[in-house]
Amino acid sequence: MVFRGRIHHRPAILSIKDTSVSLAVGSDWIAAWDLGGRLYSLWKGGHTYRRGLNGRVLHKWRDEAMAGRSPYDARQRVYIEEASANPLVQETAEVLRAAIAAVREHPRAFVDTLGAHPPAELLAVLDRCSRFDLAAATADAARFRQVFSPVGILPPDQYLSTVLQATEGCSFGTCSFCDLYHERYRVKSADEFLRHATAVRDYLGDSIRLRGRSVFLGAANALAAPMPRLLEFFAVIAAVFDAPGRPVHAFVDGFTGARKTAVDYAALCERGLRRVYVGLESGYDPLLAFVRKPASRKQAVDTVRTIKAGGVFVGVIVMIGLGGQRFAAGHVRDTIAAVNDMRLGPNDLLFFSDLVEVPGTAYPLLAAAEDVGPLSLDERLEQLRAIREGLVFEGRPPQFARYDVREFVY
Hints:
The protein is an alpha/beta fold.
């Protein structure tokens, strides 16, 4: 449903979908809430603000002064922590309240294409969203932290999934470029996972209409859990969300992923597993050893082929710039060979993720000690081009996508 009207003499549009509500005022202000009333995005004067459930906001904008060399240079982003982000939440609540007041004072202030004014159910949803102000957002973020451990990262196509944390930490935690998982690795019991999944369902409420298209089974390497426990987890998902076969996605590494058979993955597929994401990073074994990733090229290829043999799609992640100039030739050559050996198809995803050197991780120290300098932007773009041009697929290719870890917020 879409209704047009005016707020403070400015044109405005109210829209409600089956997952969200949005309000546009003028040509430079658009806010959107999920049906649970939680603000999740604001576009204002060319700047985008995406709010996570934990209260953190990702602020993105385009720097035209840097757009000449590459569109990637022009993308600017910074995280705004909860306390600094809450004024944006308050602003959106106040603008929405003004829209509601306009509708109530002048019932025909907003009309659809047929001249009908907003129905009562739309006003009820708008009213719920308008109550998500600074105080409500602060309380909601605190409740989020009671239900979830920190959500490290998700694949880009899963940013709006329902995260269920079956494990904590990472099962190996040795990758020198990663700073996402600090807890000791632990697999939850079935009862503990049931309590967690129930708490997530109750916390999300109607927000699940936006975030419930799929389930992401976390954390870093949930599919490393033993098969009997995984089967219990999938039974919990079906019971708690009353949806047997709800699409489930998860990470697995190339080392432990190969320990499961095609029969194992087929059993999980029957229970809803649709895609598994494998961080290949590189097909060049000396580079994998340098960054302390506990999987060889062969193990990663075997893992992907085993997953696919079980009827499950994959998402393979390749890092651009990893290993700098020293490892560049081998990285390009053997990554092409590894991806070609995986036999990816049109329902698979192939992500290209730029190396982001995070201060405090081991990678910058290792690179400095071994005189491994970073690739320039032009060199990274050339590396991306070379890898893509070397890929050969028997039929329709997989879907290609960029994966920027700096743009994640849950």
